[in-house]
Design brief:
With 312 residues, this protein is of the alpha/beta class. Helices cover 38% and strands 14% of the residues. It binds phosphoric acid mono(formamide)ester.
């Protein structure tokens, strides 16, 4: 297989296992490229990409921008907080104005779930979802699975537990889809108040005891409590949350095997993970960030090859 089955990357739900393997194989190539002394290739020299961020981001935004520049694309950046969105402009008007400047691809982060799917029905450009509310964050899940593959050789057959605020997490949902498509077994662990009601219908098991979850898994992906998405309290106090679901060195060392620890960032040190775990050799958090550039180069490259150039 040499091309993706989709024109947009709106979510892991919409792509196939073959798509994921193609992205990984392409990322292997780009990872080698970005470790050379000359890190740039001309692959997207005629492509213009708009990065539209309607919500805050550090890793995803910088990673996409770097990936685009490494591929020699022309890049424009848009931040909702400093734009005419503040004056009441709609999403479609904002995007159509940007596209009229001959933009080929849109990378969009938006607080509303389904924003990318909605946009894909109204515009011609190729869209990559860089996180839509509590729905999906496909490139994060791809870089997470790619990092597991890099460390453990394969994702198939591995046991992965996702720990924390599953209810508000787009990373959790995209990871569940990606890991299952690649043949991993997935559990989720956290307070029941932070579990979506029908999470087991996705084929994952719920574990409320962190020690049991860690004893079971090969990989623990620790998620942040997303206070910015909460309008009520879901647990009595941060201290109690940390006591029950925070990962510390004593817990890690007490397991009878060595597991891999992941975190999508941003980390709340001392809440879901202690610094000595986050900075330990078992944590692959910065590998995830580094792999994000190669994964995003692969996604951009593969989607760009499907663009029908409009010469009018
Ligand atoms: N992991 C992630 O999406 O981080 P940012 O919000 O900083 O992009």
């Amino acid at each position: 297989m040499s091309e993706l089955s989709v024109k947009h990357l709106l979510g892991i739900k919409y792509i196939t296992e073959d798509d994921i393997h193609l992205i990984f194989e392409t990322a292997d190539h780009f990872k080698e490229v970005i470790n050379r002394s000359i890190k740039k290739v001309p692959s997207l020299r005629d492509i213009t990409i708009a990065n539209l961020f309607f919500e805050n981001s550090t890793r995803t935004r910088l990673s996409f921008e770097l990936a685009e520049k490494r591929l020699s694309a022309d890049v424009i950046n848009f931040s909702a907080s400093s734009s005419s969105v503040k004056k009441g402009e709609t999403l479609i008007d904002t995007v159509n104005n940007i596209l009229s400047m001959k933009v080929d691809m849109v990378v969009m982060r938006h607080p509303n779930p389904g924003a990318g799917v909605f946009l894909s029905k109204h515009i011609k450009a190729s869209i990559i979802n860089a996180g839509d509310g509590a729905h999906e964050h496909p490139t994060q899940a791809l870089l997470d699975s790619y990092s597991i593959r890099e460390r453990l050789g394969d994702v198939a057959g591995k046991k992965v537990v996702i720990v924390g605020d599953i209810l508000h997490s787009r990373v959790a949902l995209s990871n569940i889809f990606a890991l299952q498509k690649l043949g991993a077994e997935v559990k989720v662990c956290g307070p029941l108040t932070l579990m979506p009601k029908h999470i087991e219908s996705l084929g994952v098991k719920v574990e409320t005891n962190l020690r049991k979850a860690l004893q079971w898994c090969d990989v623990a992906n620790m998620l942040r409590v997303q206070n910015e998405r909460m309008d009520i309290s879901y647990f009595p106090s941060t201290r109690e949350y940390t006591q029950q679901f925070g990962l510390n060195k004593a817990m890690l060392n007490s397991l009878d095997k060595e597991i891999i620890v992941m975190h999508p960032g941003p980390i709340n040190r001392g809440v879901e993970i202690t610094s000595d775990v986050a900075d330990s050799a078992q944590a692959i958090i910065l590998d995830q960030v580094q792999n994000g550039v190669a994964i995003r180069m692969a996604v951009l490259y593969l989607l760009a090859s499907k663009i029908e150039k409009n010469e009018d």
